Amino acid sequence: MTLLTGHPAPARDRLAIPRLRSSRHGRSAWCSRAIRVSAALLISALAAQRAGAAPTPAQFPTAHVKVKVNLVTVVTSVLDAAGRPVADLPRQAFRIDQDGRPQKIAVFERETNLPLDLVLMVDTSLSAFGELKFEREAAEHFLRQVLRPGDRAAVFTFAYHVDELSPFTGNLRRLDAALARMRSGTGTSLFDAVFLGSRALAARPPGHRRVLLLVTDAGETTSRTTYDAARDAAVRSGAMLYTILIRAVRSENGRNTAGEHALDTIIDSTGGATLPVYSPGQFGPTFSRINEELRTEYLLGYYPDPEPAPGSYHQIRVRLALSGAENAAKYRLEYRKEYFVLEASP
């Protein structure tokens, strides 16, 4: 069997990896704890060796046993014609295909309670509204809405560089403090942000929902990462991508749309949505809409037939089988349409 976690395979040799800057306030506490624990184990083992006694099993880290499974999970949002989440559909209403072949649904949950890992990535190069306070206030409210026990969020900003302001945590005070440290910058490294946010999510524990939420005007100018590398990282992470797209100009003739179209193309594979805002007052309702979607998702799971080969990409199609007044054409589905099979471990 093959592990289908969506975690990234080793980076390509020639890929220009953007650098992630960690704020001193956002350094992970577990790093220092891990160093202290490792040092204590080493000292204990040396002491035992000098005393002529064999080290006990407790003096060395326990080996982890890797269990391989091939369940593919697909988190799916169903929206009606007005864009409102639909939360009362039965298992029998869903169909899943992989590479054009029907699959048997083995797992089905309404309003899934799987833990959520969220990366909030804020573009601080924005000049559309002059200030970041509207984004900060709306983001603070959103995190209070969306995070439940067991959920974790990390806060990043990006302009020329991508900066980690807070590692993953469920502590709202720490997240608020991170948002308060946002500062405006120059340049817009949009593809770097997608790449590094996806890599951060890919490193999270399996079995969690993963969401990358961008707040940006999508004006890509300074990335080291290519579009293809950013898209590949997003697909491999198994994360859904949501973009709150700030549009100071409504007409496409008055703005650079290349970044917008690039994000839409990535979302077509990862699932998620692009939600435009035209004024500061729209941040709050837009964050609330994302929260509502995340809390009314369906979890679908299947064991792929035939079993996929390691290191391969596969296409997923979810559809509704409804008739009459519940015609499936009335609904829009958001889900990841592609996944990557992790290479088998040696």
Would you give an account of this structure?
- With 346 residues, the chain is an alpha/beta fold.
- The protein has 2 domains: 72-111 and 298-340; 112-294, 3-Layer(aba) Sandwich (Rossmann fold), CATH 3.40.50.
- Helices cover 27% and strands 25% of the residues.
- It has helices spanning 29-50, 133-146, 172-180, 190-202, 227-237, 258-270, 283-294, and strands spanning 20-22, 72-79, 94-98, 101-103, 105-110, 116-123, 152-158, 162-169, 209-216, 240-246, 272-277, 298-302, 313-320, 332-334, 338-340.
- Strands 1-8-7-6-9-10-11 form a 7-stranded mixed sheet, sandwiched between helices. Strands 5-12-2-14 form a 4-stranded antiparallel sheet, with no helix packed on it. A 4-stranded antiparallel sheet has the order 4-3-13-15, with no helix packed on it.
- Helix 2 links the parallel strand 6 (116-123) and strand 7 (152-158).
- Helix 2 (133-146) runs antiparallel to helix 3 (172-180) and helix 2 runs parallel beside helix 7 (283-294).
- The longest helix is centred in the first third of the chain and has 22 residues, at 29-50.
- The protein is globular.
- The two termini are 13 Å apart.
- Residues 1-15 and 25-68 have low confidence and may be disordered.
